[in-house]
């Protein structure tokens, strides 16, 4: 998924750095996991990884890419009756095929007031030109057809997750599949802080649920986990590990304002959230981060380093971040063993999108990723 600060392209550099201090895989914690790209790469290498993030959408991706070792099975009741072929349970791929043409959420008796009240579904109503609220603000995040499909699939997941017997991981896996599918047909330039005023070619394509591939656990590695909450809480609950990888936000862009639609898909709308503003933001106070505030970032750094109990700590930051390189270096030196501090960096191409706005002018396209390392035990 397209995501601010996504480290997919920097994974080889990160792994190369990890190899310098620990050749054999151990236990790692990645509490700012985002798309879970680093967690997934570590798991692939044989690490046991505990991932976490404040965002519910990240949690779904962590479950899909890190926690699960294989696709779960699903109850056939997720499909309309005609598509069940008398089966009670079906595999993930068969489920996605069965959901492909769905654009009707199901029988109104199955739906909660919130789901039914919008008439044609929450996404259609607020985030396409089909709904009155969407039209009023000219919100064109999805084509009306894709909006209806997203509504139908997410509502079916909601109806199922009200059953006591549903599996939380299986539900999150399906939500992650939907988030990725919706992202491919979103009428944006990469982030959801704005939509494009005419429908882009990708947004006119029909939504397709492409199967995700969980990474099998390597022999001998412990079970990986996913977490939704603050980095400090996850670090405190995980306790001592071999590697703590820290990749906090580095500028003023609050993630919930840039990814409110994936967040909505993760949370569902059985209790409809209050929508505000031109882009249809949802309440997001709990996901707003001190790392994105000039005054909050130093305290956030202190808090996370106090909670991090890793033999090795690796801290990713950008050379244009709110915290200066010297501040980070001093904090890590204080946290680690004498003379163990090391610094590495790599150039990479800046992430740009139209949401950056015409008034945002960058001095350069290449920025540098800084990696601060310290050994603590
Ligand atoms: C730079 S991104 C991480 C990108 C990730 N490494 C990847 O490759 O996709 C920073 C992440 O930190 C999360 N975040 C911000 N403040 C947080 C906090 N206090 N605790 C946990 N996660 C936080 C954001 O939601 C965002 O997903």
Provide structural commentary:
- This protein has 377 residues and is of the alpha/beta class.
- It has two domains: 191 residues, Vaccinia Virus protein VP39 (Rossmann fold); 108 residues, no CATH class.
- Helix content is 36%, strand content 12%.
- It has a six-stranded mixed sheet, sandwiched between helices. Strands 3-4 form a two-stranded antiparallel sheet.
- Helix 2 links the parallel strand 1 and strand 2.
- Helix 3 packs across helix 9, helix 8 runs antiparallel to helix 9 and helix 14 packs parallel to helix 15.
- It is globular.
- About 1% of the residues have low confidence.
- The protein binds S-adenosylmethionine (SAM).
- S-adenosylmethionine (SAM) binds next to helix 2.
